[in-house]
Design brief:
The structure is a homodimer. Chain A is α/β, with parallel strands linked by helices. Chain A has 18 helices and 18 strands. In chain A, the strands form five sheets. Chain A has an eight-stranded parallel beta barrel, surrounded by seven helices. A three-stranded antiparallel β-sheet of chain A has the order 13-14-15. In chain A, strands 16-17-18 form a three-stranded antiparallel β-sheet. The interface between A and B is large, with 120 and 120 residues. β13 of chain A pairs antiparallel with β13 of chain B, so a sheet runs across the interface.
């Protein structure tokens, strides 16, 4: 049996994609669930990029057992040092350094010569190796790099101590046949040194042309044994190779991928997917393979023929294999706290006692008002609370909201806040009731913090569903803060989310940091 | 130059997927846009499946010029006759008939012998051919069918007059290498008869393992010249090969797909995608290749380096190539009706004069209240109106809604309806304001019509955004009716959508029809 290493970069490449930012606590929750899923490596972040990223990688290195914990670094010494400072707390730390090698990147981005790039690679890998046994190197934009030059860089990296070589298709340009040949070429040219040093050949494919999974599988057929991927396929632009798809290909087509295993506990796929989409706010489209809402669904008409015989004829995977749960009812009016705790644990939420108490309180409250509480409701509540602010961070507090609206009267809102311990009341009108609430709040606090995006969804079935509002506010320096709130009332959810976002922005004022962005 | 025929089945396989049902008028709008996009074939529906499907295919056959208009039929005589009755109005009609050929389907679903299946194929193709010159045949679940038996069926279909043979991977099970070999085998074994009869070899891939695009491209490399696909990749379960991905692969990798063209006007891709997602209600995930919101986006940090040099280094396609528009402002307070009309035309909406008037009225209204109206706002309004009911179909009318809500008072709603010309007023309370509105309406009309699903999204940026509410109601026979409404106020949008859905249900009572479902 050949074991393929699943290298998950949901927390680095995935989290880096527009609209996906996670708090430190949220990253920890995801990392713990990834460990449960059985990934071999967690790329936890890019420590030099921001204070938050550094702290998150460190926290994960300290707390998450099982997978290798990897931190990303450019070929700069300070990047590598910073990555090491974060990952060194893990029992299995890895430093991953990368440098662009395609002509266009070398010329347009680095403005270096090819020889200089090789020297940068050697220096970086040697330095990383002096700190950490496990070093990964990626020639960025490899898929568009001259084959022989790419091999020269790879050879230099191996000779300098790299234990994993990752060949990324940074811009998602490759076609499977071509990408497979590229991997084959690496083995043809460098087979001896790869075998001698026990080097792992890895691939990292982007999905710009919809071929990330096919390219990754083709690479595996040609000798790659590490697949870099993300949950739900999130990531820069069109995202990365989707973990669930690549894993389920290998599992479902055992006849085709003979004697290959990924070590993934596929029964954790659905939960992990739900967790990631819930925390990042990146929704999964209904027709997404493996984990989309429709992936195992058939329109009503079909079921009438007899589901059982149909399962055999149309389902190549069983929903149970990926731990499909769907939208089942889990909590009734009389269910206890144990039921809620079990779901939270099951979903990978690792909350403090105080947070669990809050979740249970909200669930009970909801169960009192509605007949039943769905699993998604609980996830939304937990997400809301897990991403919450501490008492000290809560500069503004909401006291009361009151709204009057209708098609024949202009919406009007009265909002009472507690700002620095003092009660303040503001009134506002708007084109709709939420707009009125927003205007009322705006009369009372820092007007330079502006609402940038407003998203609203109902979580489960009926009109008595929870409203899940997610907003983004922007401060005058262009920093963006995401906040989410869940409440039975849309107005309340909107007000709470707005205030949470504003609190985040007000807190950030105290400790600003510039963020660096990696792409490969 | 070899021309690949793009066979679009958005209106058949796509529309058939859970949650995607379109009205006849909506189908016509999509079909007209597909013609503008330059597809070679439009599979407009499955005429036998319902009265609505039949009428829609007929309407499209009559009104849409350019592409071949195709109707689906099982091998049954009545299916084929019904398909012909619908497509015959087109200048280029096609009948597409299919029959399962895999062992599991023959045994579990058809309960026939292999010889019987061949006979069914012969009879069906011959009958179709007696009506229509252009006949397509698909051996359902071909990818899991014994290769030689599949060739026997294909040969029988060609000898009976089929002009296109489509090899579907019905369950999305194939891997590219394997699927390419299957196509190659067809040419190896039946090359002579294919060439002699000028038969088009087509493929139809499902995306259950995320490989539909890769499989389709591999088939093209092995001789297939028709690709069946859908916009946004919608379709049964995980959907079909995505039109935009397969087309942009061939275009972007000209060096790889030498001398191949699809005839698609790629600048219409973005618009078509938006139209389909807006009308079906199937949202496209942010990280979807080619057309996702993030496909051409980079996080803020990157842009600061200088967008221009980055474009060269990270973008393998230009957004302009697919007609990317994004979220630009199009209508200000002083823009006229011409601007709105131009957008509607540009987006492929083919509305009646009366409908255009309504759209303009709503847009002007919104422009008065907000500073600016976004393109998406206009699309949402047009979608709302295009899918609307006629005066006769409007059994219930909304007069007034009034809501009071807050965190310290229970939400309460008063709703006035005009039912059969008479004013009725109802009051309701609820866990949230929308729930209260729903309860108030429930006091006045048929209580057997129940709300099944409630979805809510804000369309553009701020809290003054339009609320786009989409609901599904279910009557006591299990029939489901989707309705959508757009309004600046959430309460109003909810009330309007609920009433529209209920009107649809009340109308349906008069003309019920059972629906048949095709899957291949």
């Amino acid at each position: 049996m050949k074991k393929i290493i699943i290298f998950d970069t949901t927390l680095r490449d995935g989290e880096q994609s527009p609209g996906a930012s996670l708090t430190m606590q949220e990253k920890l929750i995801v990392a713990k669930q990834l460990a449960k899923l059985g990934v071999g490596v967690i790329e936890a972040g890019f420590p030099i990029s921001s204070e938050g990223d550094f702290e998150a990688v460190k926290l994960i290195a300290k707390q998450v057992k099982g997978p290798i914990i990897c931190g990303l670094a450019r070929t700069k010494k300070e990047d590598i040092d910073r990555a090491w400072q974060a990952v060194k707390y893990s029992k299995k730390p890895r430093i991953h350094t990368f440098c662009a090698t395609s002509d266009i990147h070398i010329k347009e981005k680095l403005r270096k010569t090819k020889e200089e790039v090789i020297q940068m690679t050697i220096d970086a890998v040697k330095h990383a190796k002096s700190l950490c046994k496990d070093v990964e190197f990626s020639p960025e934009d490899a898929a568009r790099t001259d084959l022989d030059y790419m091999c020269d860089v790879v050879k230099a990296a191996i000779e300098s101590g790299a234990t994993t070589i990752n060949i990324p298709d940074t811009v998602g340009y490759a076609e499977p046949e071509e990408f497979g040949k590229r991997i084959r070429y690496v083995f043809d040219k460098l087979g001896n040194i790869i075998r001698k040093n026990n080097v792992i050949i890895s691939i990292h494919c982007h999905d710009d042309l919809g071929l990330a999974v096919a390219n990754s599988l083709e690479a595996v057929k040609n000798g790659a044994i590490q697949i870099e991927c993300t949950m739900n396929g999130i990531g820069e632009r069109a995202g990365n190779c989707s973990l669930e798809e690549v894993v389920m290909n290998i599992k479902t087509r055992k006849d085709f991928f003979k004697d290959i295993t990924t070590g993934i506990n596929t029964k954790e796929i659905f939960k992990t997917s739900q967790l990631v989409s819930s925390l990042t706010g990146l929704a999964v489209q209904r027709n997404k393979a493996i984990i989309g809402q429709n992936a195992f669904a058939h329109e009503a008409g079909v079921h009438q023929h007899g589901v059982l015989s149909h399962k055999l004829t149309y389902e190549i995977m069983k929903p149970e294999e990926i731990g499909w749960i769907g939208t089942n009812i889990v909590i009734g009016k009389h269910s206890g706290r144990h039921a809620v705790e079990a779901i939270l644990k099951d979903m990978g939420y690792d909350l403090t006692k105080d947070q669990i108490k809050k979740v249970i309180g909200k669930v009970k409250n909801l169960a009192d008002k509605q007949k039943e509480v769905m699993r998604e409701d609980i996830i939304a509540i937990a997400t809301d609370i897990a991403g919450g602010l501490s008492k000290e961070e809560e500069i503004i507090k909401l006291d009361e909201v009151k709204v009057t609206t209708g098609n024949k009267t202009q919406p009007e809102a009265t909002v009472t806040l507690i700002v620095d311990g003092k009660k303040k009341t503001g009134k506002g009108k708007g084109v709709g009731p939420v707009d009125a609430v927003s205007h009322a709040i705006g009369t009372m606090i820092d007007p330079s913090i502006k609402l940038k995006e407003y998203g609203l969804k109902a979580i489960t079935g009926g009109t008595d569903a929870l409203a899940d509002v997610s907003i983004k506010v922007q401060d005058k320096n262009g920093n963006i803060f995401k906040a989410e709130a869940v409440n039975e009332g849309i107005m309340m959810a909107s007000a709470i989310a707005l205030i949470k976002g504003m609190n985040k922005a007000l807190n950030f004022k105290r400790k600003p940091k510039k963020r660096i962005h990696a792409q490969y």
